[in-house]
Amino acid sequence: MVVYLPPGYDEAPARRYPVLYMHDGQNLFDPETAFVRGQHWRLGEMADMLIAEGRVEPLVIVGVYHTGHGRVHEYTPTKDARIGGGEARLYGRLLVEELKPFIDARYRTDPARERTGLGGSSLGGLVSMFLGLRHADVFGQLAVMSPSVWWGKRAILRYVAKAVPKPATRIWLDMGTAESRSGIADARRLRAALVKAGWREDVDLAYAETAGGTHTEAAWAHRVGDVLQFLYPGDFGEFHW
């Protein structure tokens, strides 16, 4: 785990901050721990810049490390007969029952659901969507980047359809056009499922297809700033496309 604290954290002892929990913590801040060495999201630098410009509210970001070979198990809500997986519910309990209480006790956070986010890319995007609905009383903001909708014969679409009543959750959903043709189609299916369930685009749902975007850390680093601006807008004003 790695924890990012915003500029001015130590100088504002009475202030409490929203928190964004991000999967694949190895890839976010440190080029030496990234899946491809040297290719990290530069999330700390991006957050520093956007906070300084007033485009993003100061926030705490928790990068949650995966367990290496166990990643596919942690990040998938259903079990695949060939690949395995299906332990996302246990991973969710770890986040909600152990990690979040620890972070709220250790740092000056605002623990309210509308101030708590969850996000990730690929399987991390899939598990964010799943756990964001399963624990809608805990997470009020979701960053669902390049989600692996295909997992479990698109089981996540059926899960979204059961989101009744619709939780008051704000969702960022995206996909790069160069990831795969099926990836774009699946992202559009997920968007349609969310809209059918009651989410409204440009209100509590942002959907983006990034021209030329690939399924890489560099591509996610390129658009994570937009994610932060949508989920945690600063005093500069509302997020503009």
Can you describe this structure in just a few lines?
The chain is an alpha/beta fold.
How would you characterize this protein structure?
This protein is an alpha/beta fold. It has one domain: Rossmann fold, CATH 3.40.50. Helix content is 37%, strand content 15%. The chain is built from seven helices and seven strands. The chain has a seven-stranded mixed sheet, with helices on both faces. Strand 2 (19-22), helix 1 and strand 3 form a beta-alpha-beta unit. Helix 1 (43-52) runs parallel beside helix 7, helix 4 (123-134) packs parallel to helix 5 and helix 5 packs parallel to helix 6. It starts with a strand and ends in a 10-residue tail after the last helix. The model has no long low-confidence stretch (mean pLDDT 95).
Structural topology:
Layout (H helix, E strand, L loop, with lengths): L1 E3 L14 E4 L20 H10 L7 E4 L7 H4 L13 H19 L9 E6 L1 H12 L6 E5 L5 H11 L8 E7 L4 H17 L7 E6 L6 H15 L10
Parallel strand pairs: 2-3, 2-4, 4-5, 5-6, 6-7
Antiparallel strand pairs: 1-3
Helix pairs in contact: 1-7, 4-5, 5-6
